[in-house]
Give the backbone structure.
Amino acid sequence: MNKSRKTYADVVTGWVSLTAGLTANSVNLPHLETHRQELLQLLAEAQALNAQQAAQTAAKQETTKELQVVLEEGLKLATFLRVGVRQHYGNRSEKLVEFGLQPFRGRRVPPPPEPPPSPEVTAPVTPDSPVDSE
């Protein structure tokens, strides 16, 4: 049996419809009155919790916006302070490490690549080979 999940609105609409029908026919269904009252209480509680959830969602969104503003201001101020520290101690000072900054230690120059072997082919020199002496 594949049971699809109902939304909050579907559930609440169903409860409202059910309690309205039970209220209209309470004379014929007196044995269900206690349970109808319970469902009305649960309906009121669900609606209150839904309103609370909506308020918390709005508050969360507002808090998120405020946090973004604080972070932006903090980033600007931290950048300003880092520049001030570098100005005071200099770019190469090891003291910068205390502030979480990387001192400038020079550029690493990679070693030059080895030259490729010469394409010349030379004959091996043997003791009885003639030597050119011009």
